[in-house]
Design brief:
- The structure is a single chain.
- The protein is mainly α.
- It has 16 helices and no strands.
- Helix 9 packs antiparallel against helix 10.
- The protein is globular, with a radius of gyration of 19 Å.
Length: 286
């Protein structure tokens, strides 16, 4: 994995934790972390030859589904809110932040049905320009009123299309796709300037570090400290909501709450992966 990508994985996780902390300032910048995670997850899945085993996502997700169900019952007296429907129960889980794993798993299964020829130059161009269309017209199709987590699914679709464009460019080295990708960045930036679009802000900051997918060649060693910290990110995604509840119980709030959740989540997952048997750590944190 490229060193810069590993660094931005950790930074993006901080953005997601910041978003979940309830801070209103810069929250749309912080939410760009989800865009980055989606683009890189899809990009590296396609680059791997579709050899990513989705069980490494589903198995820990299943554990944390049960964990948050029990936790919610003990703390709130219920597992799901009364108004929650079956779709939300299954795909959002007792803790909404877990919606991403079913989404990315379904996506990988869907891609598995298509031969790699489908991700050619034409598809790369189409994906890029369709993502531009969706971002530009977001105010017309805003899905925030949809049932959870469908709103989240639709919100992140442009990131999936952009990942296909990145992959198509790196596979075909097509100048038209590269020009289209840079036009995408320019158009999103203009939406921020002239339209004050929060959706565009999220995508602009989420896509900026993705530029390293195009040019950077510096590969990080798996023995490096940065790689080991970054490898804990998926586990931090699972545990950080519990850590918010834990530290709020002891009265932490504001910046102290945010930093405590971020630092302690990484420390906890990092040392758990180091101490626990590999199979147990994989079961818990992927």
């Amino acid at each position: 994995m490229k060193a810069e990508i590993e660094f931005f994985r950790v930074l993006s996780m901080f953005g997601i934790i910041y978003f979940h902390s309830g801070y209103q300032y810069f929250k749309f910048v912080a939410y760009g972390g989800l865009v980055f995670f989606t683009v890189t997850a899809v990009f590296f899945y396609l680059q791997s030859g579709k050899k990513v085993n989705i069980n490494r996502y589903i198995i820990p997700w299943s554990f944390w589904f049960i964990f948050y169900a029990v936790f919610s019952y003990l703390v709130n007296g219920y597992v799901f809110h009364n108004e929650t429907n079956i779709f939300t129960m299954v795909f959002a889980s007792p803790s909404l932040h877990l919606w991403f794993v079913p989404f990315i798993s379904i996506l990988f299964l869907f891609f598995g049905f298509f031969p790699y020829i489908i991700f050619n130059k034409l598809i790369g161009l189409f994906s890029c320009w369709f993502s531009i269309f969706l971002i530009v017209t977001y105010s017309q199709w805003d899905t925030s009123e949809l049932t959870l987590p469908l709103a989240q699914y639709f919100h992140i679709i442009p990131a999936v299309l952009i990942a296909i464009s990145f992959y198509s460019y790196t596979s075909n080295n097509d100048k038209y796709i590269m020009v289209s990708l840079f036009l995408l960045y320019g158009i999103v930036f203009l939406l921020i300037i002239f339209n004050n679009s929060n959706y565009a802000i999220t995508y602009f900051f989420g896509l900026l570090p993705c530029l390293y997918l195009l040019k950077s060649k510096f590969i990080i060693s798996k023995d490096s400290f940065l790689f080991k910290v970054s490898s804990s990110t998926f586990g931090v995604y699972f545990v950080h909501i519990f850590m918010f509840s834990f530290f709020r119980y002891f009265g932490l709030e504001g910046i102290f709450l945010l930093l405590s959740v971020f630092v302690c989540s990484y420390i906890g997952v990092f040392f758990s992966r180091w101490i626990l048997p590999h199979k147990v750590a994989t079961f818990l944190f992927g």
